[in-house]
């Protein structure tokens, strides 16, 4: 009975916010308090300056401390050295400071921060502390849910440091940037809930951009995706990222994501 109540509670949460679980951006909503999420993120992108593909494996663990605060740790593994090598890790936290609820809608705002360290070579002008650069990022995100549609937007400041021990950040490149995202999501199935074991199908469209603050170079990508939430606990994301515009050097801007996630609820009280 206790397991049923836990699962049913998550089913109610998913019924109003499943389409907020974006693939490459994070909404203002947090994971449920006391929950533990395990994610295996994977990406394979086509190299621009050489033949072949860049593969990244990113295991993550997310913990909901309470309804307003969550933390996450990630590990970065890639094949850049022609073999799978652990290159670094990341620590992320998000605090929800505003929450308003209506009958069929809600609005959330949150502040977030991330620090990453990485020992790989620095091979592009784009700053990306999720898997490439040592550095930090801090920003705010706002998410509006209206019935089955979610709209989320964020802006952040990102700063890169040397990738120790061997790679200094190039003095000819901008070491800080402004990031901006806009994400749209819609719950496509089921049309009507009958039990918590129903599979949710969400479609999403995300726009991800960056401007280097010291020279004005920028890029803008589009990321369409489809998402499946199974038995109210397991999540599968499939997405494709395509560069729309870029004036900066990027080593591998286009490719696919496959994320696998499982959530454990009521782990801590």
Description:
The chain is mainly beta and 269 residues long. The protein has one helix spanning 2-17; strands at residues 36-46, 53-64, 69-78, 85-101, 105-118, 135-146, 149-160, 176-189, 200-212, 218-230, 234-246, 254-264. A hairpin with a 2-residue loop joins strand 6 (135-146) and strand 7 (149-160). The two termini are 18 Å apart. It comes from Flavobacterium algoritolerans. Residues 1-18 form the signal peptide. This is DUF2490 domain-containing protein. Keywords: Signal.
Which features would summarize this protein structure in a list?
disordered N terminus, 12-stranded antiparallel β-barrel, 1 helix, 269 residues, 12 strands, mainly beta, single chain
Q: N- to C-terminal separation?
A: 18 Å
* Overall pLDDT level: 91
Strand order of the largest sheet: 1-2-3-4-5-6-7-8-9-10-11-12
Structural class, by secondary structure, is mainly beta
Rg from alpha-carbon coordinates: 19 Å
Strand content: over 45%
Shape: globular
Largest sheet: 12 strands, antiparallel, barrel
Work out the helix count: 1
Count of DSSP strands: 12
User: Which stretches of 5+ consecutive residues score pLDDT under 50?
Assistant: 1-18
How do the helices and strands follow one another from N- to C-terminus? Answer: HEEEEEEEEEEEE
Tell me roughly what share of residues is in helical segments.
Answer: under 10%
């Amino acid at each position: 009975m206790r397991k049923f109540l836990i699962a049913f509670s998550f089913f109610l949460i998913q019924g109003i916010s499943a389409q907020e679980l974006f693939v490459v951006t994070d909404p203002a909503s947090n994971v449920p308090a006391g929950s533990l999420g395990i994610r295996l993120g994977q990406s394979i992108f086509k190299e621009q300056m050489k033949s072949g593909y860049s593969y990244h494996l990113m295991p993550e663990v997310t913990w909901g401390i309470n309804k307003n605060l969550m933390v996450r740790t990630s590990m970065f593994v890639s094949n850049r050295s022609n073999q799978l090598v652990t290159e670094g890790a990341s620590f992320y936290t998000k605090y929800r400071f505003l929450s308003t609820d209506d009958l069929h809608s809600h609005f959330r705002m949150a502040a977030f921060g991330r620090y990453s360290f990485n020992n790989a070579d620095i091979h592009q002008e784009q700053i990306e502390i999720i898997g490439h650069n040592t550095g930090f990022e801090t920003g705010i995100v706002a998410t509006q849910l209206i019935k089955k549609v979610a709209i989320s937007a964020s802006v952040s400041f990102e700063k890169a440091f040397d990738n120790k021990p061997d790679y200094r950040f190039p003095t000819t490149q901008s070491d800080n940037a402004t990031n901006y995202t806009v994400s749209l999501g819609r719950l496509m199935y089921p049309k009507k809930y009958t039990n918590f074991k129903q599979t949710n199908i969400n479609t999403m469209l995300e726009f991800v951009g960056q401007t280097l603050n010291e020279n004005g170079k920028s890029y803008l990508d589009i990321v369409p995706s489809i998402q499946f939430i199974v038995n109210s606990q397991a999540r599968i994301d499939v997405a494709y990222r395509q560069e729309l515009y870029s004036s900066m050097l990027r080593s591998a801007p286009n490719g696919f994501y496959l994320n696998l996630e499982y959530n454990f609820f009521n782990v801590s009280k």
